[in-house]
Every structure is written in structure tokens, then in C-alpha cells.
Specification:
Blueprint lengths: L2 H5 L28 H16 L22 H10 L2 H7 L9 H15 L1 H7 L1 H5 L3 H4 L1 H4 L5 H29 L6 H18 L1 H26 L14 H15 L19 H29 L4 H19 L5 H13 L1 H18 L8 H19 L3 H30 L22 H14 L4 E2 L2 E2 L3 H4 L3 H24 L2
Antiparallel strand pairs: 1-2
Main location: membrane
InterPro entries: Pur-cyt_permease (IPR001248), Pur-cyt_permease_Fcy2/21/22 (IPR026030)
GO molecular function, one term: transmembrane transporter activity
């Protein structure tokens, strides 16, 4: 990949700027300094950034001539690294809480992962073909200004995942020190380390993710080797219910579907000549294989915690980190080293999530595009660390409250994006006009997208089953909110978008 493709020259999108000031934005054009000294200082700073691995481009569309990377397997490795860590184990541990035994947990995990992973894997294939980041693609359905609504929801979702990841990492580091290091300090360490990777951007992120999953995989093999004999001591459960199956399925969907809102962020520099079906398989494998295996391991751990006193004590003191620390006790001091490695494996997930978060900040308010992407790495870190420290006080309650709604809105969002591309753009990648990406007059009005997503919740809400609310339909069926959100939004978007195009011509 060329340096220019990552740094974005000052001339990008200057053409026709005088004719349409909405259209072109150069991210280096942030308030020009007036004094000679400040100009020289700014020039030196920009030269230093250009010589560094820091990505400056941000959300600006990537021209065809700069989509030259042939590291197609990076689409597998980035998903693999984002999933070969403690986060899927954490989600899997929620399975027994729905009254499911290990076999049923494993089947639910397998089915819902196979189903929902197709959404992010598919949307990621649009990145090389369009050169557009994921939420910039959303402008071609929602319009320039209305897209701020799903972007705000996405920012909340991504920030929530960063918080969960920081908390789990902090718990692991605290468990290693046996309380000598507070969870708050562990959270700060994880957050700062992730900041360095997300600050640099696309190239550094992909290089890190290409190899970081290897020590993570070795670490999990050691964990299973040390504590695997206790996994068969599962706590007996009552008969499985349909409600329990569907509610746990919602948990899996809440983990997997939000990846679709950032999928293309990781593929915009890839050469578009690579077959989309092969790229899809890379992404699908990177999402499904590690998620299924580690969520199932998490379900096994969650079902055995109560029957193993050492694990239960670790869970009470440091939640996920404490349980893994207890599993590694037979390895002695080496086990503590492995737990440190496992805590650092979370960097692959949180750094990639932070990277996409920085891009979403630039899209939230169109004028923020002039603020360099890397600045928002600092902003999101400053937000995540204190929120994580607060959330750590009652982690699993915070986790369940967070995942309660993210599957619903993200399913509606994905339904709109896929319907727009497949039905209204007929799968034509050239219909995403780069000159229109930042021009409200050339983008859709967004009325159809907002209306279809909002109206779908009239049926989604009765289908929700949460600790704080159970809808009348969900009382019988269990939680089917994300399925309903996807289907109803799709059915509403078809006629509403047709009317919008007929009325506005765009």
C-alpha cells in the first residue's frame, strides 16, 4: 500500500470545490495559522505525520488508483484477531443464565453465528468496490444529515464494546496481581495500549491483527489444558424452553450484527479486482470459526463455575478474569503470564473498534470531517476509560443492559443498507458516486430509511424480552426482536424508498 493512499494528499477532492462547497473537504484544512512560526510548526508537524505510519485520510473516499493492497487475507485476520480473545468467552458465559445446558448453548451459538455472521462478511465486500467507509456508504441510503442518527447509535454501540473489552482486560490484569493491581489501573493500561494502535490507523492496525491472534490461540489452548477437566462438571439445568433459546440467540446476534456497521472500514484499500465471493468467505471464516469455538468454551465455563469452588471464588472477585486465573492455577507462575497474554489479546478487538469509532466521529456531524481522524482516538480513549471503571463495579449487569438493544437497531440498519444495494442499486458499485459523498443535494433525502427503521420498532418492542421489559409477544415466543427488526424494516423500506426516489429523483 502506498504512503499516499494512507495519508491523503492536500489535493484530494479539490476539483469542483468552487462549484459545490458542500462536496469537497480536505482534512488538512483545519484553521490555517496566521503567524509564520505557527505555520512553520504546523508544516513540520504535517511532515512528521506524513513520514510516520499514522493514517490521515479519515473518511474521505479512497480513489480507485489507491485501492492497491493485495493482502486479501487481512480480511480474515482482522476478524479472527477481533474474535480470538476473551470477549466471545464473556458473551458465551451468559448462556447458562437462560436455563440452557451446554449442548443447547453450543447449538444456539453455532446456528446464530452462522446466520448473523453473513451480514458483516457481506457488507465488508463493498469496501474495495466502492472505496467508501461503512457509515459513509450509509449516506447513500440515509442522506448527508439524517445519517447522523444511526451514526450516533453506532458510536454508542462501539463505545459500549470498548468499555466491555477494557473491563475484561482490567479484570484479568487485576486477577494476575491477586488484587495488588486494581481493576481501574488495569483498565487504564488496556485503554492506553489500544490508543497507540488506533491512533496510527489502517496499516498499523492490519499489521498488528495479522499476527496478534497467534499468541491468543496458544493461550486458550493452555487454559483448556489446565482447567478442561473441570468443564464436564456442569450445573444441572431445567428443560430447555423456546424462550431461552431465542433470548440467548439475541445475545449472539448482539455480538455479531454490530460488526456489520464497521466491516467496510477494514477493506477500503483492497484491490477491487479480487472476487467478492472469496473475500466474503475470508470474512465469514474469520467471524464464525473463532466466535463459535470461544463462545462455546465460555458457555462451558459459565455452566461449571458454580460447581467448582475455586472458579466461583475467582468469579466473585474478578469475574471473567478471576475464573480464567483460577483455571490456570495448576500452571503456577506461568499461568499468570498466560493470563497477562490473554488480557493483551483484547487489544486486537478494542483497537479495531476504536479505529472505526474515530471514523464515525467524523461522520456524526459533517463539519467534523476537518478534524484529523487520529484526534478522535484520544477523545474516545478519554471517554472509554472512566466509563469502564464505573461499569466494572457490576460488570455482568452492565453487560446485559448494554446488549439489550444493540441487536435491534443494528439489524434494522443492515436491512436498509443491503436492500439499498441489492434492490435499488441493483448491485452496481459504480452507483456510489464519489463526488456526491458529502453533498446533501445529490444524496437521498433519507426519509425512507429513517421512517422504515423507526416504524419497525412498533412491532419490535412487543417482541423484546429484557430484564427491565418483556413485551406481550415475547412472553410467548421469547426475544425475537432482532429478527423482526430486520424483516419489518426491509418490507417497509421497499415501498418507502420507491416513493422517495419517485418524488426526489435520488
Amino acid at each position: 500500500m502506498t504512503t499516499s493512499s494512507l495519508h491523503g494528499e492536500n489535493t484530494i477532492f479539490h476539483t469542483n470545490q468552487a462549484n459545490d462547497p458542500e462536496k469537497a473537504v480536505d482534512q488538512n484544512e483545519v484553521s490555517q495559522p496566521k503567524s509564520k512560526f505557527s505555520k512553520a510548526l504546523r508544516h513540520a508537524f504535517n511532515r512528521a505525520l506524513s513520514a510516520s505510519p499514522v493514517e490521515i485520510r479519515g473518511v474521505l473516499p479512497v480513489p480507485l488508483e489507491e485501492r492497491t493492497s493485495t493482502q486479501y487475507s487481512s480480511y480474515f485476520s482482522i476478524w479472527a484477531c477481533m474474535n480470538i480473545n476473551l470477549l466471545p468467552i464473556t458473551f458465551g458465559m451468559l448462556g447458562p443464565e437462560y436455563g440452557l445446558n451446554l449442548r443447547d448453548c453450543a447449538l444456539v451459538i453455532l446456528f446464530f453465528c452462522l446466520l448473523t455472521a453473513a451480514l458483516p462478511a457481506y457488507l465488508g465486500t463493498l469496501g474495495p468496490k466502492t472505496g467508501l467507509r461503512q457509515m459513509i456508504q450509509a449516506r447513500y441510503s440515509f442522506g448527508r444529515y439524517p445519517v447522523s442518527i444511526p451514526v450516533a447509535l453506532n458510536l454508542a454501540t462501539l463505545t459500549g464494546f470498548c468499555v466491555i473489552t477494557c473491563v475484561v482486560g482490567g479484570q484479568c490484569l487485576s486477577a494476575v496481581a491477586e488484587g495488588g493491581l486494581s481493576e481501574a489501573v488495569g483498565i487504564v493500561i488496556i485503554g492506553i495500549l489500544a490508543l497507540f494502535i488506533s491512533f496510527c490507523g489502517y496499516d498499523t492496525l492490519h499489521q498488528y491483527e495479522r499476527f496478534a491472534w497467534i499468541p491468543a490461540l496458544v493461550g486458550f489452548v493452555i487454559v483448556v489444558g489446565c482447567g478442561g477437566s473441570r468443564l464436564k462438571e456442569q450445573v444441572p439445568t431445567e428443560a430447555t424452553t423456546a424462550g431461552g433459546v431465542l433470548s440467548f440467540g439475541m445475545i449472539i446476534a448482539s455480538y455479531m450484527i454490530p460488526f456489520a456497521t464497521l466491516a467496510s472500514d477494514f477493506t477500503t484499500y483492497l484491490n477491487p479486482k479480487f472476487p467478492s465471493w472469496r473475500l466474503f468467505l475470508y470474512g465469514y471464516a474469520g467471524l464464525v470459526i473463532p466466535s463459535v469455538l470461544l463462545m462455546t468454551l465460555g458457555a462451558a465455563i459459565g455452566g461449571a463455575v458454580s460447581s467448582t469452588p475455586e472458579w466461583e471464588a475467582g468469579y466473585e472477585s474478578h469475574a471473567v478474569g478471576g475464573v480464567l486465573g483460577a483455571m490456570l492455577i495448576p500452571a503456577g507462575g506461568f499461568g499468570k503470564f498466560v493470563l497477562v497474554v490473554l488480557s493483551l489479546t483484547l487489544l486486537g478487538n478494542i483497537a479495531a473498534t476504536m479505529y472505526s469509532t474515530t471514523l464515525n466521529f467524523q461522520i456524526l456531524i459533517p463539519q467534523l470531517v476537518v478534524v484529523p481522524r487520529y484526534v478522535f482516538s484520544i477523545v474516545i480513549t478519554a471517554i472509554v476509560i472512566p466509563v469502564s471503571i464505573k461499569a466494572a463495579t457490576d460488570f455482568f449487569i452492565s453487560l446485559e443492559n448494554f446488549i439489550a438493544v444493540i441487536a435491534y437497531w443494528s439489524a434494522a440498519m443492515v436491512a436498509i443498507l443491503t436492500t439499498e444495494h441489492v434492490v435499488f442499486r441493483r448491485g452496481r458499485y459504480d452507483s456510489y458516486d464519489h463526488d456526491a459523498w458529502n453533498c446533501a443535494k445529490r444524496l437521498p433525502l433519507g426519509v425512507a430509511a429513517i421512517a422504515s427503521g423507526a416504524l419497525s420498532f412498533a412491532l419490535v418492542i412487543p417482541c423484546m424480552s429484557q430484564t427491565w421489559y418483556v413485551g406481550p409477544i415475547a412472553m410467548t415466543t421469547g426475544d425475537i426482536g432482532f429478527e423482526v427488526a430486520f424483516v419489518v424494516t426491509l418490507l417497509l423500506y421497499l415501498p418507502l424508498r420507491t416513493l422517495e426516489k419517485r418524488y426526489s429523483g435520488r
